[in-house]
Amino acid sequence: LSGLDPAQPYFQDTPIEVRLDKSDAEFVDVIHTDSAPTIPYLGEYSALLTALGHLDFYPNGGKQMPGCGKNPISQIVDLDGIWEGTRDFVACNHLRSYKYYSDSIIYPDGFLGYSCASYDVFKTERCFPCPPEGCPNMGHFADKFKGKIKNDFQKLYLNTGEAKDFALWRYKVTMTLSGKHKVKGHVNIALYGSGGNTRQHQILEGTLQPDNTYISFIDAEINLGTVTNVKFLWNNNVLNPTFPKIGAATITVQSGENG
């Protein structure tokens, strides 16, 4: 039984008899996409943030979904038509749950959820990579993880894209810089693999200090497969007459899926 952003009003903190609960089926997975505070008289009903099933997924933290803060006009004048656009504008976060679910059918290897105490912890190294038993897939293929559930409730975190296709694949990038002098600027990385290439992702901004090691995460728009190349680009934010040079001594890329 899959719960797609189950509603909060009149169900929060109620007995399990009247709300979605893991006792409702042999396997219950839940996608939480709209658990910001409720605004009851504006028709803005938020969803339950409480863990309810055997696996509870909180994409993007479960509150505000990427792409839902767009300009109202551009959102209403949608590619799918005025009706779809208006509906998305009014209940964008809520409706993301079924859109993620339908995308998960197309990407059976995507939407990996990382078991974590919170979304803030998910952004650190503490929940990366997946454990030896793997990470469950949010959506249609969540039941592949049915026999591997250890905890009473399992909260899982991941990031998604702003628009279809929503699936992303998480990689950890560890980079040691080379050069003679520190400079201000930013670093972009593009990854190349047997499964395709990513766009450029900014992984560092501010002071670039040679010999320092920096760790960042990339949520790539494709499953890279075996990584073959890394493109390193840096830029200083202001014109520097000394023409400083910064390079990458080493770059290590680690897949979240298999470590």
Automatic annotation (TrEMBL):
Known catalytic reactions: 1,2-didodecanoyl-3-O-[alpha-D-galactosyl-(1->6)-beta-D-galactosyl]-sn-glycerol + H2O = dodecanoyl-3-O-[alpha-D-galactosyl-(1->6)-beta-D-galactosyl]-sn-glycerol + dodecanoate + H(+); 1,2,3-tripropanoylglycerol + H2O = dipropanoylglycerol + propanoate + H(+); a 1,2-diacyl-sn-glycero-3-phosphocholine + H2O = a monoacyl-sn-glycero-3-phosphocholine + a fatty acid + H(+); 1,2-dioctanoyl-3-O-[alpha-D-galactosyl-(1->6)-beta-D-galactosyl]-sn-glycerol + H2O = octanoyl-3-O-[alpha-D-galactosyl-(1->6)-beta-D-galactosyl]-sn-glycerol + octanoate + H(+)
GO MF term list: galactolipase activity; lipoprotein lipase activity
Pfam family, one: Lipase
Record pathway: Glycolipid metabolism; Glycerolipid metabolism; triacylglycerol degradation
Domain PLAT: 169-259
Keyword Disulfide bond set for record: yes
E.C. number(s) listed in UniProt: 3.1.1.26
Membrane-topology annotation of the record: Peripheral membrane protein
BP GO annotations: lipid catabolic process
Compartments where located: Cell projection, Neuron projection; Secreted; Zymogen granule membrane
Cleavable signal peptide: none
Gene3D superfamilies recorded: alpha/beta hydrolase (3.40.50.1820), PLAT/LH2 domain (2.60.60.20)
UniProt entry tagged with the keyword rRNA processing: no
One cellular-component annotation, GO: zymogen granule membrane
Record keywords, A-Z: Cell projection, Cytoplasmic vesicle, Disulfide bond, Hydrolase, Lipid degradation, Lipid metabolism, Secreted
Enzyme class: hydrolase
Predominant place of localization: other
Similarity annotation: Belongs to the AB hydrolase superfamily. Lipase family.
Protein name from the UniProt record: Pancreatic lipase-related protein 2
